[in-house]
Amino acid sequence: MINKFNINVAIVGASGFTGLELIKIILQHPFFKISYLATSEGGGTASQLHSSLFGILDLPVKKINFDEIAKTSEIVFLALPHKTAMETVRELMKFPHIKIVDLSADYRLSHSRYIKSYGEHLDLENLNKAVYGLPELFREQIKQARLIANPGCYPTASILAVAPFLKFLKTGDSIIIDAKSGVSGAGKKCETNTHYVTINENMFAYNPLKHRHEPEIEEKLEIFGGEFHKVHFVPHLVPVTRGMLSSVYLRIDNNLELEDPIKYLREFYKNEKFIRIRENPPTMKDVAGTNFCDIFARRNGDLLYVESAIDNLMRGASSQAVLNANLIAGFDEFIGIPQIAIVP
Amino acid sequence: MINKFNINVAIVGASGFTGLELIKIILQHPFFKISYLATSEGGGTASQLHSSLFGILDLPVKKINFDEIAKTSEIVFLALPHKTAMETVRELMKFPHIKIVDLSADYRLSHSRYIKSYGEHLDLENLNKAVYGLPELFREQIKQARLIANPGCYPTASILAVAPFLKFLKTGDSIIIDAKSGVSGAGKKCETNTHYVTINENMFAYNPLKHRHEPEIEEKLEIFGGEFHKVHFVPHLVPVTRGMLSSVYLRIDNNLELEDPIKYLREFYKNEKFIRIRENPPTMKDVAGTNFCDIFARRNGDLLYVESAIDNLMRGASSQAVLNANLIAGFDEFIGIPQIAIVP
Amino acid sequence: MINKFNINVAIVGASGFTGLELIKIILQHPFFKISYLATSEGGGTASQLHSSLFGILDLPVKKINFDEIAKTSEIVFLALPHKTAMETVRELMKFPHIKIVDLSADYRLSHSRYIKSYGEHLDLENLNKAVYGLPELFREQIKQARLIANPGCYPTASILAVAPFLKFLKTGDSIIIDAKSGVSGAGKKCETNTHYVTINENMFAYNPLKHRHEPEIEEKLEIFGGEFHKVHFVPHLVPVTRGMLSSVYLRIDNNLELEDPIKYLREFYKNEKFIRIRENPPTMKDVAGTNFCDIFARRNGDLLYVESAIDNLMRGASSQAVLNANLIAGFDEFIGIPQIAIVP
Amino acid sequence: MINKFNINVAIVGASGFTGLELIKIILQHPFFKISYLATSEGGGTASQLHSSLFGILDLPVKKINFDEIAKTSEIVFLALPHKTAMETVRELMKFPHIKIVDLSADYRLSHSRYIKSYGEHLDLENLNKAVYGLPELFREQIKQARLIANPGCYPTASILAVAPFLKFLKTGDSIIIDAKSGVSGAGKKCETNTHYVTINENMFAYNPLKHRHEPEIEEKLEIFGGEFHKVHFVPHLVPVTRGMLSSVYLRIDNNLELEDPIKYLREFYKNEKFIRIRENPPTMKDVAGTNFCDIFARRNGDLLYVESAIDNLMRGASSQAVLNANLIAGFDEFIGIPQIAIVP
């Protein structure tokens, strides 16, 4: 039985940016306790991996070992590359007391879509059990789940902007999303597209109309709204470390009434603590370091423009993961979830 | 008679960013010579206005005086706020030997559109004579003009991206443009939205669906293509000093053939020295400091995505202005126009 | 009598960057509660002043009123310009139950030094009672104080780097400090030196050898070490929002033993939770968002180089202020003080 | 015999940042013509190496071949790593018509200092012939040289700041230099210290008191001034792409007269076109993209503070290299050398 007020959690994949964010959030979480840290190689301590943790956390970093995880932890966060995540989930799910929040792409998509975007899937059994961890849309399923597929950053920002308006779309009409992400989304790997000189004073689109988050957005919107809409998705890299905007362009069926989209959004999300409806276009900074998704909408004729802002590492990854862990642990979902932005 | 190879030019409004860019370009231009610099207040020298010009240009900065301009100059660049520009043009046009490139919004729009966006117009006579200075679309008229309305930065980037594809649009269909601009576009004025702390590590939309460049884009596309399309325009501020992307989303009439939009763009712009068709989405840096407009396009079903990149201060203002001056002076248009980007 | 576990605090001067940081820290502090927010003008709510607080704090913002402050609050944080601070302190000190942490320069200096740097002082009575709020050097006095002069950002970083080595200096030798500050240190006021275009891709010194923090450093080091050393201080503005480095160059008396300055620092600060001795030069990011001061030292011959890093808004202002409030309230000093950096 | 007005030059090491800067400068140089481009691997064209050159330069990029270089070129710029540079110089110097500007460290130091900092030297013969390419100090020797050792960026900024004041130093006193460099100085290699997320919103010292430019500064100052002074050198990495400040702290012999250091600097450098003496601390931006070195000085008692600013890629590498090539080719040194900064 889970001790509700002192749950041991493992962070597997502790060396990356989302791993660091998980550590930071859980260090300040009143009920979760980091019992196990691992990377693919293992070695050293938390503060050797992340120098900002010097004097804060000196836990040893282990090489991933399933039995050790099972012995030490009740909830496991996986911040691993896809494929590696799948192999780890498959083994960990064999321990019945373990619950998992997987931050990779491995359990986000239906089998057929997964194959198209990422290739073969090796753990169909658990794929069918996984719940997509976007609480505003799938809260009740999350609470019952043992395996959470934590959403991608672009899908989180985009789905939260589009979902409220699905019922106003013309049947079969496509959805245009122009997204902007900070560089931390590209990960800690050093390569041309993360080199300071490439990014600084620059901005550009990448993988336009071909990004792997496109089918994720399409699938979840279809599940939620009951109808398929093609998504045309163009992401851009922006010279900031963290932050994400999703600019959505929808064509509204003029026969349906939608006079004041902001008022409508307020109503739609009225019970959602981590959605803030803004009277002006949201900014990256107002949500940086928090789990908030700020949303704005404006209509002109049949065109509806919706803009959402999240922190790609927080709501787009780690704070949403901890919130999902709160839900599966039976806590109030906002316990220990950052709300105070790092402005200025 | 104009001495073709040593033309005296005035820069009126020399204190702002576009004024500085004009100075820098003309200093390196083989045939233009700065004969007169002015600001609304006057006083000091060029290098006191712009400390980077120390040791380079110590010309005195005058308070605007129409007779002095007429005496000293054949071509006048106006980098003034709208309204002020109009009052200056009206007086300068009385001197028949003077030709003007106006960088303000005052002569860009038809009268009716001007009134809606900017209020009353005080110089209808010259408004009717002005030619819109986008050379790829209106080169022959520019050559004959005495007064050039130099295009806005957003319209330049957007029109060059959209114009080639106008004939593929469904009749009456609207055009979606998601644009991104560096902060220099907001001018030298110190205010919250130009404060370093507001912009740095941040990004946000402003005036979505309501920006004054929207009607400018609509009007010029209608003139060029012969049909009106509503433009839905959302600009964003990006934490870079200079640079602009225009991301365009069009719905293509599937009955028309457009198999390879990049190949088509190459053909469309084959004689244009300052358009570069890219095989990958263009970047702000590759055009920074130059007059280039780099364009990329990709199609998926009936959705056509086009992305263009310019330097907002150069192709979006000052280098395009000097190029227009080349045309009205009878020079090859590329004389003295920057082509080498400031990468890295 | 102070209720130790639920103390009402006022933040006067809530509109600036340090005001916002105070709000954010106290919102997360277990024992302090914001009972009163004020600005010089008053009006609106906390979230109207700071849009990131939307949904977090909607407390009304009052126009400064001494009686209201006295009625609502036990501890008052003043984040006001100097002079204004002094006038406010003078009035508030008349209420015997009130304790004050003043973030301005008004109570940091001896009378004679104050006059030279800032002009006339209007509250000599309290000037003599104020304690300089640098806990590592003056902890016991702080605990007894009613009025804390919270140190400047440059002095905090510099004094913590120099103080341990004072006894190794040659008698009368001067101290060289080359400091670097993020732009938030220049405040929220919009002016040329805070314009994005001025700062971005730029760096420069300002007020070299003439900055008003120079005498503050000299005075406090003299008080602590018992001997006067001239400080030569050159601050630079760096294109980051928050962060500060202080690079100190000292000449060591070769007759004194100092083999391993890092080891020595560790010993000197062994009981200090918010000092971290680094084996490599500290970085701005490792301390951003925290109260830490990270220090490194290296010696070559008689030259000792010491580098310290702080967050100018936190250890250099607001988190140090709250720590001082902890001390005067009798709490453990680290209660509610941020320790987790905002990396990445 | 050299045709003075159309000299073929080779750029060997064309893929890095300094290689690109060389290409850009020479493309705009009236008398130099790029006849040969090479990298260690070869392959592709200039615009495939550097996408900003698309449409500008499509010269093929060769694998380094000494005979080809000798056949095609009269002046060779080497932008290669040290050691590789040395091996290339040794071969190229066998062709008597070839003159070389080497941007590496290989010929900058005396043999004994080279060994200490970089290890064995394999080309002592040419090491003895090489001239250090700092024109303000060694112009006449440069004009006669076949092999120029182009100075490092830090030494250029530092020596130009210190040299004028050498005669005021106390005998044997050491020199303190706190330097700041943009990230392009770290080269195009992708690694942790060039990752955007490491650099952005950050600043830190590296190799303090141990950087390999320290002996270069010491040696050249000794040669110029006739006396050895120990240099204590601490470089910092700054979140800008290009730019460099050198903050110098000197102790002046109070017996010598130096009332107005700015006036003195003006006199010292009165014939130097690429030195600008500033009345305020120089900024990175005012010299970005140019060959200028801007210098400021201020004295307080026996402390003299001097601050210089250069563009690390230009005056610190490529534009100084082309200027040296001008000198060895017998041209006026300022022909084709960038003077107009890339502000804003």
Please supply descriptive tags for the structure shown above.
alpha/beta; 7-stranded mixed beta sheet; Rossmann fold; 2 domains; homotetramer; 21% strand; 31% helix; 344 residues; 13 helices; Dihydrodipicolinate Reductase, domain 2
Rg of chain A over CA atoms, rounded to whole Å, is 20 Å
* Count of structural domains of chain A: 2
CATH superfamily of the largest domain in chain A: NAD(P)-binding Rossmann-like Domain
Distance, first to last CA of chain A? 43 Å
Q: Mind telling me which CATH architecture of the largest domain in chain A this is?
A: 3-Layer(aba) Sandwich
Q: State the shape of chain A.
A: globular
Kindly provide the name of the CATH class of the largest domain in chain A: Alpha Beta
Share of β-strand residues of chain A: 15-25%
Largest interface, Cβ cutoff 8 Å = A-B, 42 and 42 residues
Helix share bin of chain A: 25-40%
Element order of chain A: H for helix, E for strand: EHEHEHEHEHHEHEHEHEHEEHEHEEH
Mean pLDDT of chain A: 96
Biggest sheet, spatial arrangement of strands of chain A: 3-2-1-4-5-7-6
